[in-house]
Write a structure and sequence with these properties.
The chain is of the alpha/beta class. It contains 6 helices and 14 strands.
């Protein structure tokens, strides 16, 4: 079983790669090669930065978006999107303009607008998960588990059934989404210590 972590120039992938290597007995490949992604058994799309910039960087890798669409949608390879990697699953992102996403999870990525003006944006640091429904990749994570966030935008899903978990930052903020063989987390599992490593292990063991 090969795990492909996509490298498209969006942030430092070292911590993500190390976290997956720690939980996997199989090869973990950090790659910008669409052919390697197409061959992978599991795919991880991390992301740091602005929605539009990340999508442009992905599209700049010739064939990568097609490889993702084929592997995830047509062939049902398990997929994990992290932070902006999760946001790209949405229909559209509204950060610095309007940018099309993959359209895998219906909804928009909008700016955080906490009801309490004392709460800062970006939302950065540890916060609690409120788990809305069970999912194999969240197995063993307690409701209220602390995970690590760094973001200024969040995914507002069109269908509440796609939302697995939320957190509170002056109102409910989507923390995890899923449908079919794909899951996304707004938080960074690779920075979330025991809870994050459990989620990564669950993803690697998931047989959707």
């Amino acid at each position: 079983m090969t795990v492909a972590i996509i490298d498209y120039g969006s942030g430092n992938l070292r911590s993500a790669a190390k976290a997956f290597e720690r939980q996997s007995d199989e090869p973990v490949l950090v790659t910008s090669d669409p052919a390697a992604v197409a061959r992978a058994d599991r795919i991880v799309l991390p992301g740091v930065g602005a929605f539009g910039d990340c999508m442009r960087s992905l599209k700049a890798l010739d064939g990568m978006c097609d490889a993702l669409e084929d592997a995830v949608i047509r062939r049902g390879r398990p997929f994990l999107g992290i932070c902006v990697g999760m946001q790209l699953m949405a229909d559209v992102g509204l950060e610095h303009g309007r940018h099309a996403g993959f359209g895998w999870i219906g909804g928009e990525v909008r700016a955080l607008t906490p009801a309490d003006p004392a709460l800062k944006v970006p939302h950065m640091g540890w916060n609690e998960l409120a788990i809305g429904r069970a999912h194999p990749v969240l197995a063993g994570l307690d409701d209220g588990a602390h995970v690590y966030f760094v973001h200024s935008y969040h995914l507002v899903a069109a269908d509440p059934a796609h939302v697995l978990a939320t957190t509170d930052h002056g109102g409910a903020v989507t923390a995890a989404v899923a449908r079919d063989t794909m899951i996304g987390t707004q938080f960074h599992p690779e920075k979330s210590q025991a809870a994050g490593l459990r989620l990564i292990a669950n993803f690697l063991a998931w047989r959707p």
